[in-house]
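PT: before anyone asks, these are the final sequences, not the draft ones from last week. 742 residues across everything. Please model them as a single complex and drop the result in this thread when it's through.
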Amino acid sequence: MKTLMIVAFRNLNRQKKRTFLLGGAVAFGILIVTVINGFSGAFSRNVAENMAHLFAGHVFVEASEKTPKGKTLDLIRDDRVILEALAAAGIPADYVAKRSSMNVTLVFEGNKTSQNIFGTDLEGEKYLKERLSFKDGGFELTKAEPRALILSEGVAKKLNAHIGDTILAQLKTVTGQNNVGEFVLSGITQDMGLFSNMLAYAHREYFNQLIDIGPEEYQLFGIMTANLAKSEQVAIRLNAALKERAQVFELPPVVPAPKKAAKADTAKADAVKTDAASTVASETVAAGTSSSSPMGSRYQKLLRLSRKETWEGSKYRVFTINDMISQIEQLVGVLNGVSLGILVTLFLIIMVGIANTFRMIMYERVKEIGTMRALGMHRGSVRTLFLMEASLLAAAGALVGMLLAAIVMLGLSIPNFGTGTFFALLMKNGHLSFSPPLVQSLANLLLVIVMTAMAAYLPARSAAHLEPAAALRTSK
Amino acid sequence: MNRPAVSVFFRAPSFVPTFLMLFFALFISAAATPVFSQDAEVKAILKAIDEMNDFTGRDFTGVFTIVSDKPNEKQSAQQIRMFRRDDKEQFLILIMLPEASKGQGYMKEGDNVWFYDPSSRKFSHTSLKENLNDSEAKSGDFTKRSLLDDYDTTKVEDGNVGKVPVRVITLKAKTNDVSYDIIKLYVRKDRSLVLKQEDFGLSGRLMRTTLYPKYADIGSGKFYPSQMLVVDEINKGEKSQITMTDLSTAKQPDVVFTKAFLEQVN
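LR: through. Structure below.
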């Protein structure tokens, strides 16, 4: 076998130009596919991290209640039950944010724009203080002004507003009544591009007055976990603890596909083994995260439950940032499918080239094959030699392709594209990031080797079936 | 049945029986305490306004043309046909213009309000508090409302709209189901017709002013505004003029108030 390997390697080395072209085609295919896989691998994680910063949490709790007329109000009136559940579940809340939010129309001197405003604890939200970078004004101004508003530079420019200007905000209360408030522009942050119209901050107390809820009430309880990967486990534990203390919205469990179930089991193994309640919660979360339904994200499904069901008092829903963007997973699946399609198409074309090339190689080496067969080489060894040559070519090409892909990905991740575009949501701090999945890359490598060997099989078989005497008689 | 529109600003009062009754009521109530008399008078006015806008026992339809002006934007026009059946708290609004919105519609049945989009052929939940197709008007402006049920009177003053003497009645919402927390009605003294309405947000700031310069006599002692001017007080320069035509109280087929009608009419 070792001898065959050496001969195969020597044969490839003998025709450097041909080997380079064939290997280059293989490398190019692998390069494209690896870059796509790398991008899709980082895609959902980047979106989740960016959204987590936006909403100040990886895991969230919301509450809904029904009015006497049957309308649904999304409001956390008393968070003691959430805090108790958090403590009971042993969840270290590295960072907790309590926010109200509403989409408003900001009006200033004839200019207007739509803007989401978070009513938050501007003094107490440590993470927000660390994250916001001001171009003008800042927290020293918000401290003194109860109607303070922090806007991004882009929105302030659009309104032509400056620090100290009074901006009108046209909005609706939580029950849908029309209202209007006055904010004093106290901070202008670096432009946040796509996020500009989603990220504005005001004191929660004043904001709550405008949307007609109590000063201690709010709408979104956000928990920032140590890292994104832990958010699903934290959500399961919190859901179970909350369920023991209050009414909780839960999606009906669905039977996950075997592959997904295995994946979910691995990811949630720690929580699932604890007790039955966790198991139920795990099933529920699994039901949601298997977001194959085109009916929207798991969060949207939970929200729809609150519109359909009837209950008394407050009913809670626990969800993660992944639940809010679970449709992204579908997109990642599509991207991976597309990359596999590209790989197969490219290699079908390359296979034709390889099959023709190996047929030519066979005719070129007829005498050589005849000599080897006359010296006692078996038919199987001739076939193996050809297949080994093809496999070596494919493996080398694929490895070079992966190396080139790594260089390309590294190169693409260096430039800072900024956060001022729509694509900022897909990037990591303005940089493209890639995370090629190892298993998929290995599978691609294997697929390429198998396909190349298949392409070379027929010429290899023809070579193996050559009669030594006839082959030696061949004039070429 | 549609009768000629009358200008409530410039035409002499001709609704004598109501006027006399109101006068008689005022005269009788003068004997009581001033607070009681004013309270009773305001209730009577609000009741009359509510009754004017109550079509229980019959249907009500009309074509409303809304012309909206916004600064630095081209004037836009839209036309809707409205059907109301107050007996069952049903209404249906069908958008006829502009072409881009043609076929869209709002339908209210009980407490549910639906919006229909023919392009997606789907119904979605909406609210009477939402603006009608980017105009200053809200779908709730054309539906039955009960000032007596929804609001408490907080202040009554005398004033003028133009040269017409009016009662200025300030109302505060009893419930958060209404669009505005505070409204101020300018009601003609000689008959219970609202000439002007100011809507205030929860913060007490004026958000919208509506003028009712003309009313149409639609029979059975009922008057319905045939012209409205809605002025956005927050976004200066934004206003909508609404003209109501083809007003009728004739009975409509039951199918009109169904989702199927919105689907089929397209």
